[in-house]
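For consistency, the fold was encoded as tokens, as this record shows:
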Amino acid sequence: MFSPFSSVRRRKPLQITCDAPAFEVVLASRGVGLHSPEDVRWRRQALPKGAPAKRRGLIRRIWRLLFAFDVPEIEETCACGSPLPERRFILLRTRAGAQIRYTVAQCGRCRSIAWDEERM
């Protein structure tokens, strides 16, 4: 019925892969300061090896300024190439009682969000 020159042809089904976390994490990320988390690209990105998944406190920053100023700090970059800010944390509890900690950071240039998950 269809001619080979028709604009309507059978094609393979599209494969869609979603790299976003659970929708509860997307909603909670607005509370930690991310801009329009429902409308941007989410990309799962593990922390670089050797990078601590904790906040850089004032004492650590002062110590680094005074004693470890020449030690290079591991800087995380986005897929677009710009550096990512410090990760923020979201802690969710499941109905079974398990805790899951998510780390999120939003790129200032392309607004995509890098995230990772840790089971506790």
Notes: The two ends are 58 Å apart (CA to CA). Helices lie at 23-31, 58-66. The first strand starts at residue 42 and ends at 44.
